[in-house]
């Protein structure tokens, strides 16, 4: 098995702390006891690098993961990562052949998909396991609770298809008020009770927020997503263990140019920023092409020499500028610049960037571009960290 690292010389990198990933998984496992964790790797493992994360999960003994679609499952298989992939998004019949060929376990909520999967399984000569999605309140995909039994009865008509799981999803488990989620949990429990005669092996609904904050939601498996990456599902999680999560990703770049400029100097496109005093300005090779949102222009702090320094001027596709006057005499070409992560006693978090953008931490990390290499690091911190590309 080999995992490639594209653009190895790209100066902007996302550093992946696998020791933190292990810590977070153990914390979440402790919350649910013996119930298996099915980690969610969709959207390139929330921007962390699906192949890197999945390979580590396999080393830790995990055998089942969740992905968004069949292409994500295929990418893992072609990287030599052998896991069962639960495909969470609704699929179309034309995707059935690939789902069956790669032995995925797709979520289903239409009879058209059930029929197509059964036909593909008959042709392939082996069965296909599926998970029936029941809409208990998310409103995105899924059949209505009162339709579950008739749907399962129809599934029995296809010997090549096995309904392995019954699932649903929480839309509001990360809120402070848990009343809606508790009512939803009761609806799912009631539906699950009616399905015992069908031999369904696994009932699952809990996401990261539910694992942390909704006792009794674990059932037979849980699907942790954002929390395995060390990020809180929201600021409303009451469980204090959320503060024990450790961020897996650090986003860093390096200074490629330094210049002294006088007061009144306009910087970057549109001169949306002008210096007010003699300033030392650093250029860094990161921009919206790397996933650093242009909307952060002139409102972002980065870390240089352990000091918060303001990003100035409009963020461009490939480069941005930082006012490093505060570290004049200490800063040099090639110095590390932290976008997300720690340096010295300071830290910039994905939640901080999300707050400035009016969004959530999920979007910040997932939005880091594919051109940014994901690099596994040692447990050592900051500049002493060795970069190592995983292979073998």
Please outline the helices and strands:
Elements lengths: L12 E4 L1 H15 L9 H5 L3 H10 L4 E4 L2 H9 L5 E4 L8 H6 L3 E4 L2 H14 L3 E6 L14 H8 L5 E7 L11 H16 L7 E3 L3 H6 L35 E6 L2 E5 L4 E2 L5 E2 L4 E6 L16 E4 L2 E6 L7 E4 L12 E8 L2 E3 L1 H8 L3 H6 L7 E4 L9 E2 L4
Parallel strand pairs: 1-18, 2-3, 3-4, 4-5, 5-6, 6-7
Antiparallel strand pairs: 1-8, 8-16, 9-12, 10-11, 12-15, 13-14, 13-16, 14-15, 16-17, 18-19
Keywords:
eleven-stranded mixed sheet; Lyase, Ornithine Decarboxylase, Chain A, domain 1; alpha/beta; 2 domains; six-stranded parallel sheet; TIM Barrel
Give a brief outline of the structure.
The chain has helices spanning 18-32, 42-46, 50-59, 70-78, 96-101, 111-124, 148-155, 179-194, 208-213, 350-357, 361-366; strands at 13-16, 64-67, 84-87, 105-108, 128-133, 161-167, 202-204, 249-254, 257-261, 266-267, 273-274, 279-284, 301-304, 307-312, 320-323, 336-343, 346-348, 374-377, 387-388. β4 (105-108), α6 (111-124) and β5 form a beta-alpha-beta unit.
Strand percentage:
15-25%
Please give the domain count: 2
CATH homologous superfamily designation of the largest domain: Alanine racemase
The radius of gyration over CA amounts to: 24 Å
For the record, give the distance between the C-alpha atoms at the N and C termini, rounded to a whole number: 5 Å
- Report the CATH C-level class of the largest domain: Alpha Beta
Mean pLDDT: 94
Q: Which structural category do the helix and sheet elements fall into? A: alpha/beta
Helical stretch tally: 11
Largest sheet: 11 strands, mixed
- The helix-strand sequence is EHHHEHEHEHEHEHEHEEEEEEEEEEHHEE
**CATH fold assignment of the largest domain:** TIM Barrel
């Amino acid at each position: 098995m080999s995992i490639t690292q594209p653009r190895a010389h790209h100066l902007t990198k996302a550093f992946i702390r696998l020791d933190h990933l292990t810590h977070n998984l153990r914390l979440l496992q402790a919350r649910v006891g013996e119930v298996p964790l099915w980690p969610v790797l969709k959207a390139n493992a929330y921007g962390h690098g699906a192949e890197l994360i999945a390979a580590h999960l396999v080393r830790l003994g995990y055998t089942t993961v969740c992905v968004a679609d069949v292409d994500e499952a295929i990418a893992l298989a072609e990287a030599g990562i052998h896991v069962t992939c639960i495909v969470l998004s609704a699929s179309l019949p034309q995707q059935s052949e690939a789902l069956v060929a790669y032995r995925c376990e797709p979520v289903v909520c239409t009879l058209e998909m059930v029929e197509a999967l059964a036909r593909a399984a008959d042709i392939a000569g082996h069965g296909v396991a599926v998970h029936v999605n029941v809409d208990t309140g998310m409103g995105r995909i899924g059949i209505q609770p009162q339709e579950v039994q008739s749907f399962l009865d129809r599934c029995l008509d296809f010997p090549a298809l096995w309904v392995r799981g019954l699932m649903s999803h929480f839309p509001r488990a990360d809120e402070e008020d848990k009343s809606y989620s508790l009512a939803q949990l009761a609806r799912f429990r009631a539906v699950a009770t009616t399905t015992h005669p069908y031999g369904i092996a696994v009932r699952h609904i809990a996401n990261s927020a539910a694992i942390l904050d909704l006792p009794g939601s674990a059932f037979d498996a849980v699907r942790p997503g954002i929390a395995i990456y060390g990020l809180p599902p929201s600021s409303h999680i009451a469980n204090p263990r959320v503060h024990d999560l450790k961020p897996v990703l650090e986003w860093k770049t390096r200074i490629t140019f330094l210049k002294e400029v006088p007061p009144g100097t306009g910087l970057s496109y549109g001169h949306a920023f002008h210096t007010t005093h003699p300033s030392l300005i650093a250029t860094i090779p990161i921009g919206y092409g790397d996933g650093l949102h242009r909307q952060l222009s002139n409102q972002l702090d980065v870390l240089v020499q352990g000091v918060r320094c303001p990003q100035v001027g409009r963020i461009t596709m490939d480069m941005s500028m930082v006012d490093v006057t505060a570290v004049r005499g200490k800063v040099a070409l090639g110095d590390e610049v932290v976008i997300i992560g720690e340096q010295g006693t300071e830290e910039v978090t994905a939640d901080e960037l999300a707050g400035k953008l009016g969004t959530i931490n999920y979007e910040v990390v997932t939005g880091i571009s594919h051109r940014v290499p994901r690099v596994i690091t040692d447990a050592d911190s900051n500049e002493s960290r060795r970069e190592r590309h995983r292979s073998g």
